[in-house]
Fold this protein.
Amino acid sequence: MRLGKRSGQLKGQGSLKNSFTIWLCFAMLVTSLIVMIVDYNLIYKRNTRALKTDVETKIAKAVQTLGHPLWLYDVNFIREFAEILINDRSVLHVTVVDERNKNLVDVANVDTVHTENTLQWSLEEEIRFKGRKVGKLIMSFTNAEVSLLTRRIFLSDFIVLFSVLLSVLGTTWFLINRQIFAPLRTLERTFHEISAGRYSRRVDLKMKNELAAIATEFNEMVKQVQLRENKIRESETQYRNLIESSTEIIFTTDMKGVLIFMNPRFEKWTGHRIADFIERPFTWMFSPSCKTHSQERFHACMRGEKIPLFEIELEKSDKTVVHMELNLT
């Protein structure tokens, strides 16, 4: 068997290690994105619901507090209370009207920054005192603070998740490289050496798992191949010794009758060089009168017919002729 120079990997062959790394990183990236998107939405919705519950409680308490001052038409108290309410970053606007819908207090929160993505809504509640409607409280709210808090929590969660995933990735890579890729590299190197004919090499994996079992089976297979190879080599050596020491001329041809091999006895009998006849029709050895019927019997032999010994004339280098018998098998 003839082998070319090794180039690390076969042309067009991918690397299992590289493919695994790419797909592992891709899977972890997708998982991280999904987890972060779900986490962000859960945090955002949970905090928004909590905010809505809180503002409903807040406006209910404000209505109870404003009942008596509004009945007394205490505008200063109402304004001071509205300014206390507006200090909450979730409150955008506070309006208090009397029973005739006249604005008594109208305060806006100029410190709250909100964007198009933030949620805004208004709540309107009647102000009653001793069962009688004395006015109305209108408050506008935003979840800008919730959005900001959610982004901070999201960033914190992202850092934690990224650290965990990086740790998992490193640990996974170390274990897989140690348990799979390193043994595979050992298998690859040993396979290459064995394919180059070094049958004494064995795969040595210092572990007990499926790869070690494969290595054991492979070593046994190589052992059997080595034994057969030795037997074949011994047989070939005996055959060659027998052929080359024979007193008869022995030759082999291909299916078309072209010479492939002749033993040294041909040169001793004829004085010709064997190299001058190899890759030429075997009938070139014979005198012209023998070529035609020798070729015919050769074709008959190739068709499976049994050909008896027949006489041919072998032409020597000095143009003399030797009468011989030819056995075609």
Notes: The chain has six helices and eight strands. The CA atoms of residues 73 and 98 lie 9 Å apart.
